[in-house]
Write a structure and sequence with these properties.
four-stranded antiparallel β-sheet; seven-stranded mixed β-sheet
C-alpha cells in the first residue's frame, strides 16, 4: 500500500527558508515520478516541483524556479522540498504525490497523495 507522509510545516517570515519532507513506503521509490503540489486558500492545486527518482530529472514552474529545489534520499525513501526566498504568496497546503513513471507538473499524473502540510509565510 502506497503511503506518503509529509512533515516540516511552519510559519516563516518573507525571505525565509523551510524544508519539507515526505516519507514514503509501499512502492519502488528510486524508480518513480514524484511531485510537490500546493493549494492556497481559495485557489486550485498547483504543481510546484517534480522529480523522476530514477534519473533525478526535475521540473519547476516559473513561479518557484530558482527558489525551490526538489531532492530525494533513496536510502531513506524520502522526498524533500527546499524552499528559499519565501513570499507571502507561497502560503499554502503542500502535498507530496506520486503516480507512476510519467513525470511532470500536471496534476493528472498523480494518484497517490499525502495528507498535506501547511506552510505560512507572513
Amino acid at each position: 500500500q502506497v503511503q506518503l507522509v509529509e512533515s516540516g510545516r511552519g510559519l516563516v517570515q518573507p525571505g525565509g527558508s523551510l524544508r519539507l519532507s515526505c516519507s514514503t513506503s509501499g512502492f519502488t521509490f528510486d524508480d518513480y515520478a514524484m511531485g510537490w503540489i500546493r493549494q492556497a486558500p481559495g485557489k486550485g492545486r498547483e504543481g510546484v516541483a517534480a522529480i523522476y527518482t530514477g534519473s533525478g530529472s526535475t521540473y519547476y514552474p516559473i513561479s518557484v524556479k530558482g527558489r525551490f529545489t526538489i531532492s530525494q534520499d533513496n536510502a531513506k525513501n524520502t522526498l524533500y522540498l527546499h524552499m528559499n526566498s519565501l513570499k507571502p504568496e507561497d502560503t499554502a497546503m503542500y502535498y507530496c504525490a506520486t503516480g507512476g513513471q510519467s513525470c511532470g507538473l500536471t496534476l493528472d499524473l498523480y494518484n497517490y497523495w499525502g495528507q498535506g502540510t501547511q506552510v505560512t509565510v507572513s
